[in-house]
Amino acid sequence: MKVKICGITDVTTGIQAAEYGADAIGFVFAESKRKVSEERAREIASHIPSEVYKVGVFVNETLPEIERIASIVGLTHIQLHGDETAEFCQSLSYPVIKAVSFQGNEQLASIGTYPADYILLDSPKGEYRGGNGKVFDWHQVDKNLLNNKKVILAGGLHEENVESAIEIIKPLMIDVSSGVETNGVKDLNKIKAFIEKAKGIAIGGEIK
To answer: What residue stretches are annotated with the N-(5'phosphoribosyl) anthranilate isomerase (PRAI) domain (predicted)?
Structure first.
């Protein structure tokens, strides 16, 4: 199972997350308590191995600004968390992760044709477009609507519920932020435990 640790804001946490086995780290450039400057993100990214995805999270940002930040920081993927259109997605020169706040399968049916490289299933919107730390009912998701998509699961995941989440949704990757924090700050012990738990879960008789 691949793991993305999102909301990274300092070099030490970025380095340790990668060493613990994170496959991707996320930098939030939208309004959030985890928002990071492009200068800080660039510094962190420069210490992360090349094989680890560097994902930039944006909400309704302009195309030139996304491309500018991605180039400066050294991003490998763009995560769109707003109301971006399919045409906007296609115009980006980076692989795209399109976040969807799950509010029913009718919505998922329409996202099935969205031209993104990955679909990120997140909990319904809260104060911010993502990173609200709330779980949604995974059993409600009609996975047939996502058969041809690479799915990333987010929304209130932590060490105690990640096994159930993986078994029900069977995503390609899981995305965690608040679930590996203590008092709003990334906790290295929680990051290590979460990654070990997620990567040790057997689905269909094999470790994913």
So the answer is: 3-196
Q: In whole angstroms, how far apart are CA 48 and each of 11, 19, 20, 98, 141? A: 9, 9, 12, 23, 34
Select which of 122, 137, 142, 187 is catalytic: 122
Strands (E), 23-167: 24-28, 53-58, 77-80, 96-101, 118-122, 151-153
Tokens, residue 198: 């997620």
Q: How far apart are the first and last CA of the chain?
A: 5
Q: Is the pTM of this model over 0.85?
A: yes
CATH of 2-207, one of 3.40.630.40, 1.10.1670.10, 3.20.20.70, 2.60.40.10: 3.20.20.70
- The strand pairing partners of 5, in sequence order, are 25, 176
39-72 pLDDT, tens digit per residue, is 999 999 999 999 999 999 999 999 999 999 999 9
Contact 156, 181 (CB under 8 A): no
Domain parsing of the chain, residue ranges: 2-207
Active site residue 6: yes
The per-residue pLDDT for range 122-157, each reduced to its tens digit, is 987 655 544 456 788 999 999 888 878 899 999 999
- Listed in order, strand segments (DSSP E) in 65-208 are 77-80, 96-101, 118-122, 151-153, 173-176, 181-182, 185-186, 202-203, 206-207
The pLDDT tens digits of the residues spanning 100-112 come to 988 888 888 888 7
β-bridge partners, 72: none
